[in-house]
Design a protein that fits this description.
Layout (H helix, E strand, L loop, with lengths): L1 H28 L4 H8 L22 H9 L3 H32 L5 H13 L2 H14 L7 H8 L3 H11 L3 H9 L4 H12 L1 H16 L3 H6 L20 H33 L4
């Protein structure tokens, strides 16, 4: 038994190191100068010959890449705020639409309920490439192309939050709802005072996953936004030249931070929401 536990510990530790290694390289690389970065990974990028190498810490740490990005790169902050303008309203809109839809699927019986929910699931598993043309045509007809709403509107009507929150609402004891009805509470009051507080895990997990999806979106902005002034932060890195590799490292770290903090805030709720959805036994 001890040998099995030791093996599991070593295996899991190795997996954690492999997962965190690229992140550590990105963080330490953001404190390296261009000369040091070129010496370490220049061969991979076509600058010289030999093999790539990396050290645990920078040999000559510097804040120059941070200064260059934050003070000398005027295009960075507009893209950062574009991401905020596009993702935050999208997540709030998801809650506004998905909350009553999920509650209806979980608590009401009506004709065509199962067929409609099946349609939600089908739309949820469809990749963006399948719905790209139809989404483009709809947004173009609504004259929303090349605007923030071209990304916000499809995000608002995403079906994935409905799936997560519906399963969370189903976990609310029916006896509690019946007791509230006996006390004279209406459907709206039950939804606001019982459904939302007890479905917090599903609501927050859906919000976190929606934020991560929107923050890291690449294909949707490229498809729906022609004006580069509207591009989000996820499209900033491809526009950085290799000669500014240190700036690219810093941009990667800063881009990662909001998503990482949001994920750490809702990690426990994500786990509870996945358990409630039946994905994890």
């Amino acid at each position: 038994m001890k040998g099995r536990k030791l093996f599991s510990f070593v295996l899991l530790s190795l997996m954690v190191i492999i997962i965190w290694l690229p992140i550590w390289m990105m963080i330490t690389g953001s404190f390296m100068g261009l000369t040091e970065l070129t010496e370490r990974v220049g061969a991979v990028l076509g600058y010289g010959e030999g093999y790539a190498s990396w050290s645990l810490l920078p040999d000559y740490p510097t804040l120059k890449p941070y200064v260059e990005l934050l003070l000398d790169s005027p295009g960075f902050f507009p893209m950062f705020w574009n991401s905020c303008f596009q993702v935050i309203p999208g997540v709030l809109g998801q809650l506004l639409i998905a909350l009553p839809a999920a509650w209806s699927f979980a608590r009401f019986r009506f004709r065509g309920k199962h067929a409609l929910f099946l349609l939600y699931i089908v739309l949820m598993i469809m990749p963006f490439q399948v719905t790209m043309v139809s989404s483009y045509l709809v947004l173009d007809r609504l004259r929303l192309m090349n605007s923030h709403f071209a990304l916000i509107l499809p995000m608002i009507f995403s079906t994935f939050p409905v799936f997560i929150m519906e399963k969370s609402f189903q976990g609310i004891p029916l006896a509690l709802i019946e007791a509230a009805k006996i006390d004279g509470a209406g459907e709206l009051k039950i939804f606001l005072n019982i459904g939302i507080p007890m479905g917090t895990a599903g609501i927050i997990s859906a919000s976190v996953l929606g934020f991560l999806e929107g923050w890291n979106a690449v294909e949707q902005p490229i498809t729906f936004l022609r004006d580069k002034a509207l591009w989000p932060l996820s499209l900033y890195l491809p526009s950085i030249a290799i000669e500014k590799l240190g700036v690219a490292m810093v941009a990667s770290v800063i881009t990662m931070m909001p998503a990482l903090l949001f994920f750490l805030f809702g990690q426990r709720y994500i786990e509870d929401g996945i358990v409630a959805s039946g994905i994890k036994e």
